[in-house]
Amino acid sequence: MRGTGIPVAVSSSRWRRQYLRWKGASGEPLALLANINNTLGFTFESATTAAKFIITGTLDKFPNLEIVLPHSGGCFPYIAGRVERGLVAKKFKLPRPFREYIRRFHYDTLTFYPETMRFLINLVGADRVVIGTDNYAAMDVESRTSSSSV
User: Cα separation of 46 and 44, whole Å?
Assistant: First the structure.
């Protein structure tokens, strides 16, 4: 992908393994019934992946790398301030301000609430948001939220 300018959509194969492990976990029937292993598990994994791209220096080493985070970046855009505060508390040095890294990613439109999409656009800019879908997956998406309603 290097030098092609083609964005990389990050969708860890670990998610599928983790999903299957959660799905088979004993004592979790309510979580399975409510589907939180999907709706929360994948979104927290997106946030963790974004943070790892930052703290490992990958975004600095490959300044032209374009990454698309699924699920609107998961919870990452909404807890980024907490991640930054944790880095400051541990005196973890980054070559540039943390907020610059937030804009290094592209985020898909799977937010489901217009208010959430507005927050994301205000944080990262409309130029960093791309159309996304869950229609290919087992989760049936018939969202009232679209880019035209934001």
Answer: 5
